[in-house]
UniProtKB/TrEMBL annotation:
Record's subcellular location: Cell membrane
Transmembrane segments annotated in the record for this chain: 94-118, 124-145, 157-187, 207-229, 306-328, 340-357, 363-384
The organism of origin for this protein: Paenibacillus albidus
Protein name: Chromate transporter
Protein keywords: Cell membrane, Membrane, Transmembrane, Transmembrane helix
Length: 403
């Protein structure tokens, strides 16, 4: 009996290490191949984690996306952290973030030191990657729409969300839209909710989760106070600016750019010209757009500045996801929450549909040849079922030929 118990205890760390290495490997692959911005990332995640590896069922993935869309911060990175935490605990969330984020941080810091002012925005292969993003998001919308908006009512919610997203642009419109969709879903489906998805094992204690939420709030309040009191040096001032930028942005992605510009340009850390050059470089690399902070931090303070800025802008996202996940299963099992999530998930499909048009379609599909390439890539993904990295290479090559 003792011998059996000893074998079990010894086997546990090996299992955890294997799970962590698995999460790190898959997330790094996604970090190297996920072009196209946060909406496209959700498509890549859906294809890799749900369709291919089945780490999470369709409903649970949709619920996690809805949760992360509601939280401030980079939604796609938060979804990745959440999937890593479900798969391999707290450290799984951390290594999932490292794998998905580090490749683009390294590339952008290299841009900061070696390629300042190099114009990559008009390169043909970058335009091809934008077309890839169109195909990836279209595939995700097709799959999620069939599952999450299969009837007339939810399809109507999805279309209404798309219309509102396209015509009402404010910093908080997406959050208000999700709240409204949740209220509609609760009212319509509170008495006929579907069976909840499989309960997920989340190896994070509620005590730790509450501490994470408290730490998020304390840093958000204390850092500006220390800075205004003159207690913050250069490193702490940099940390404060990027932490607040990561804490106050809903929807992530391009929404954070004006906040970052107001933080770094007036302070003299980065010139306006270098800011725009870095933004162009950010479009050329895979991974989350928030890694633009690595470039700005490198411009402001070299490698230490890059590390401080990157950690600061992503820390709120990590604290919020870790703080919310342990309460997730309980919330999902509530009939009222299930009804609200049915409405929210339909709205998420609509938000993705709106993003497929703007900014993806409007910036990538500029003529018949672009549309033809997008159709070819979509068929390769959906019907030929080629892996996304092959479609990325095909899109980049097609963009160079078109260019």
């Amino acid at each position: 009996m003792e011998h059996s118990k000893q074998e079990t205890v010894q086997g546990t760390p090996k299992g955890r290490i294997a799970a962590l290495l698995e999460v790190l490997g898959v997330s790094t692959k996604l970090g190297l191949t996920s072009f196209g911005g946060p909406v496209a990332h959700l498509g890549y995640f859906h294809n890799e984690y749900v369709r291919r590896r089945k780490w999470m069922d369709e409903q649970s993935y949709a619920d996690l996306v809805a949760l992360c869309q509601f939280l401030p911060g980079p939604a796609s990175s938060q979804v990745g952290i959440g999937i890593g935490a479900v798969r391999a605990g707290l450290l799984g969330g951390l290594v999932a973030w490292i794998g998905f984020t580090l490749p683009s941080v390294i590339a952008l810091v290299a841009f900061a030191f070696l390629l300042q002012g190099y114009d990559v925005a008009g390169a043909g292969w970058i335009h091809g990657l934008k077309i890839v993003a169109v195909a990836i998001v279209a595939q995700a919308i097709l799959g999620m729409g069939q599952k999450l908006a299969p009837d007339r009512t939810r399809a109507t919610i999805a279309v209404a969300a798309a219309v509102i997203s396209l015509t009402w642009h404010t910093a908080y419109s997406q959050v208000l839209l999700i709240i409204a969709a949740g209220a509609v879903g609760w009212w319509l489906y509170r008495k006929k909710t579907a069976e909840p998805g499989p309960a997920l094992h989340i190896a994070i204690s509620r005590t730790f989760a509450v501490c994470s939420l408290i730490l998020f709030a304390v840093l958000l309040i204390a850092l500006p106070l220390l800075r205004s009191a003159g207690e913050a040096g250069g490193g702490l001032a940099l940390f404060d600016s990027f932490y607040r930028s990561g804490s106050l942005v809903f929807g992530g992605g391009h929404v954070v750019l004006p906040l970052l510009e107001r933080e770094v340009v007036p302070a003299g850390w980065v010139s306006g010209e270098d800011f725009l050059a870095g933004y162009g470089a950010t479009q050329a690399v895979p991974g989350p757009l928030f890694t633009f902070a690595g470039y700005l931090g490198a411009m402001a303070g070299g490698l230490p500045g890059a590390a401080v800025a990157t950690l600061a802008i992503f820390l709120p996202a990590f604290l919020l996801v870790v703080g919310a996940l342990p309460f997730w299963n309980g919330l999902r099992s509530s009939p009222a929450v299930q009804g609200a999530l049915m409405g929210i998930n339909a709205a998420v499909v609509g938000i993705l549909l709106a993003a497929l048009y703007d900014p993806l379609w409007t910036t990538a599909i500029l003529g018949p040849l672009d549309f033809s390439l997008a159709l070819i890539l979509f068929v390769l993904l959906v019907f030929w079922k080629l892996p996304p990295w092959m479609v990325v290479l095909a899109g980049a090559a097609g963009g160079m030929l078109l260019g």
